[in-house]
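Shipment paperwork, digital attachment
Item: protein structure file
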Amino acid sequence: MASLIIISALLFLLLMRVPVAFAMGALGVFLLWVFPLPLNAVPQRLYGTMDSFELLAVPMFLLMSNVLLKGNVGKDLFAAVQSWVGHWPGGLGVATILSCGMFSAVSGSSVATAATIGTVAIPEMTKRGYDRPFVLGLLAAGGTLGILIPPSIPLIIYGIITETSIPTLFLAGIGPGLFLATVFIIYSIFYARIKGKQDHIEKASWGTRRKTTLMAIPTVGLAVCIIGSIYMGIATPSESAGVGFVLSIIITFAMGRMTWHKLKDAVYEAMKTTTMIFLIIAGAKVFSYAITLYRIPQNISELLTTNISDPTIFMLAVGGVLLLIGFFLESLSMLLIMVPVLFPALTMMGIDPIWFGIFFVVLIETALITPPVGLNLFIIQAVGKARLEEVVKGAWPFALMMLGTAILLWFWQSLALGIAYSF
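Attachment content:
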């Protein structure tokens, strides 16, 4: 009964449009006061949340991605990839997805990926005759690769919450990330062949390819340094993110793309996003501590495992709940509210926590492009100066592809775990 009341109270606060951080934090403080428990536990929990070396990777990756965004490196990436594949059927769509994948390997952020590549790809593709809803949907979906292809901010937070290995989570995200990118590319090619309204692009000369590739090499090299240093054990995610931030400043200034004014704007944008993320994490930490005292996660786990003995049915139920919640909550809130509740049941069901993290993030990706609160929809709407209906119309086929990937992950778990446990 207590569990139902507390969950209903949280949903009521969220439906009343109370910010997620304050809804969870305030409800957590109230529950601790009712328990009763000395409220000095609240600042202790808040300090313990922020005093995390692993969590330092979040602002560092946000700083780096914002510096690269302000430095217009997306233009270099897109131009380089376009010079190699632009003459294919649907070549600009292929170039868009490949550019999103490459930028994802640097930023770790879906918003930064969608905004960076979108500012370049949307005008170029619409000018070449591609259907506008398709272009907008492609960019919204391509941006989601930023939270699956490592480094990924949601996977970092998932690793901290569940105390699982962040490098292993990064490795597990490679297979599904590349698989999704491949599916998007195949869809783009078939879409272009069927519609056939886009302009044909002549094959770029070797001189053009060499010039554009040289311009993109610094950004690609930055991605290799970040990911390689983590996987080779040279640096932790936080250390590699810090080094990446410094290198991004050096690269953008050296290329003449950065000014002190732009750097100030990049730091300010990263600060706003970091503050939002940390407030949500702090509120979730207090709330999760309170509901643990009330044994809500344990009770829900026992309820699930008592009534659902088959792991397949359990994952179907979890997937359905996450999709439903994804219509109303943004991705980080889903992660911080649901993982503490569901995680205790994983062990009882014999479900690998690394695999579950990837499954969870794929569903988060889907939530990013589904209305009414799909964040990438609004990012692309703003970048493309479009109506939300246009973006949703183009994004729904990609949402179905993501759902199909989530289902495939259950039957083909090696897609995620094969790379993760081979190192």
